[in-house]
Every structure is written in structure tokens, then in C-alpha cells.
Specification:
By secondary structure, this protein is mainly alpha-helical. The chain is built from nine helices and no strands. The longest helix is centred in the first third of the chain and has 48 residues.
Length: 277
């Protein structure tokens, strides 16, 4: 009887360990894939800032840049699988809870579920591109079309405005979290040397702030589209980045934000290595 119970407990432990290793591998692959996309979008945005904007500075532009390289198709499939791994990781957090003392709270699980849905969409887009379907329209076209459809429903103007405010607030919140170095709570700090910590802080703060600014700016454009009842004023990632060059700071602001997106890509690589999962 005792032998059977011990054996059963051992099998359960092995299954849990295997599931944990699979989830951890999926999470790290997903973070690395996210890093590649942010890195390439940042490089494309830098080219736009310096007058060489022949390609969209968004996810589709990044995928097209990869496809042009040797073994590009293999890299695209690897990216898609990695992002699917990110979705799997977020799903496991929604179902079982995330790492940390408050990882099982309802709010954390709902946020993980939302991220899971988002990364399922992103992974599908990348895998579709890898399969040769072209990956769909640009982020700008998708944003304008979604805004137009939302405005066509009853109270759609208010819906778009509320969504824009939510995106802008999320951007501000991400910026505050980055500046406060909230990400440190999720890192294996004991494995980091002082020099590595400093480098991660540079990428985490600089990259997080740049990403937050892009989110906040996109949210402001969505609010403006709702107020003016003009869906074409909503902007995707490429148009949002290009709009920064039209400010009084000119292309230099775009270049600074683009460099920040490159830093966020590097930060994602650091998370893939040292994040607690």
C-alpha cells in the first residue's frame, strides 16, 4: 500500500517537473523571439529616422527583413514557434498561476489570459507569414480598419475613445514600471554580476521607457480619432513611430525611441536568460 502511494507520488512529481521544464523552455523561447522582433523594428525605425524608410517599421516589416536573409524561412518558423511558446507560457500562468507570492491572484491570471490571446494572434501572424501567406496587412491598415469597424457599432465612438485612453494609460504605467525597475522582482538577481545588473538596467529602463512612449502615443491617436470621428487618424506601430519625426524634435526623437526599442529587444534576451518562470 505504502509502496503504491510512493510510486504514485513519484509519478506525479515527474509529470510536474516535466511540465515545468516544458513551460520554462516555452517562456524563454518566447521572450527571445519577442526580442528579435523588437530589435528589428528598432533597426527599421532607425533607418526611417535617417531617411531610409523603404520598409514598414512594424512586425510585418521585421518579418520581411528576415525573409530576405539566407535561411530566412527557417528563422521565421523558429520565431513563430517561439511566440507560440510565449502563448503557452501565458496560458499556464492563467491556469496555474505565475511565479511569485501573488502569482495566483485573479488579476494576475486575467492579465496572463489576455497576454495569451495576444500572443496566439501574433504567433499565428508570424506562422502565416512563414507559410507564404504574406502575414496580412500592415499595422497601420489593421489599426484603421479595426477603428472604423468599432466606430460603426452603437456607441462605437465612446468605445474607441475608451480603448485609446486604456492604451495611453497602459503606456504610462509601463513607463513608470520601467523607471522604477519593477522588472528586478522577476529576475534571478543572485545569478547576476554587478556589471550584468547595470547592463540589464540600461536595457530595461531605456527600452521600457521607449516602448511605453510608443504605446502612450498610439493611445493618444486613438482618442483623437474617436473625438474627431475619423478612423483614419488611428495609427499602427509604423505610423506612430513616423509621427515622432513630425514633432519639434524632428527625426532625433524618432532615432532616440528607435534606439530604445533596440534596447528593449536586448532586454528581452536578458529576460529569456535570467527571468524567473
Amino acid at each position: 500500500m505504502e509502496t503504491s502511494a510512493v510510486a504514485r507520488t513519484g509519478r506525479i512529481g515527474v509529470r510536474r517537473a516535466a511540465k515545468g521544464s516544458v513551460t520554462e523552455g516555452a517562456a524563454r523561447a518566447g521572450l527571445a523571439a519577442r526580442g528579435v522582433i523588437y530589435l528589428l523594428v528598432g533597426v527599421l525605425a532607425l533607418r526611417v529616422a535617417f531617411g531610409d524608410g523603404d520598409r514598414q517599421a512594424d512586425r510585418n516589416g521585421a518579418l520581411a527583413a528576415i525573409a530576405d536573409k539566407p535561411f530566412g524561412a527557417v528563422l521565421l518558423w523558429a520565431l513563430g514557434v517561439g511566440l507560440a511558446g510565449m502563448a503557452l507560457w501565458r496560458l499556464s500562468e492563467a491556469v496555474f498561476g505565475a511565479a511569485g507570492p501573488d502569482g495566483r491572484k485573479a488579476g494576475k491570471r486575467l492579465a496572463a489570459a489576455a497576454r495569451c490571446v495576444f500572443y496566439v494572434s501574433v504567433a499565428w501572424s508570424v506562422l502565416s507569414f512563414a507559410a507564404g501567406s504574406g502575414g496580412g496587412r500592415s499595422s497601420d491598415e489593421q489599426s484603421r480598419d479595426l477603428t472604423a469597424r468599432a466606430m460603426a457599432v452603437p456607441a462605437g465612438q465612446w468605445l474607441v475613445g475608451a480603448a485609446g485612453v486604456g492604451i495611453a494609460v497602459a503606456g504610462v504605467w509601463m513607463g513608470v514600471q520601467a523607471v522604477r525597475r519593477h522588472y528586478r522582482k522577476k529576475l534571478k538577481l543572485g545569478e547576476l554580476s554587478p556589471r550584468t545588473r547595470r547592463l540589464i538596467d540600461v536595457t530595461g529602463v531605456g527600452g521600457g521607457a521607449a516602448r511605453a512612449l510608443v504605446f502612450a502615443t498610439a493611445g493618444v491617436f486613438a482618442v483623437r480619432a474617436a473625438v474627431d470621428y475619423r478612423p483614419n487618424q488611428a495609427k499602427g506601430l509604423d505610423d506612430t513611430l513616423r509621427s515622432l519625426a513630425d514633432t519639434p524634435f524632428g527625426p532625433w526623437l524618432l532615432a532616440l525611441v528607435a534606439a530604445g526599442l533596440v534596447l528593449f529587444g536586448l532586454f528581452s534576451f536578458a529576460l529569456a536568460r535570467w527571468r524567473r518562470v
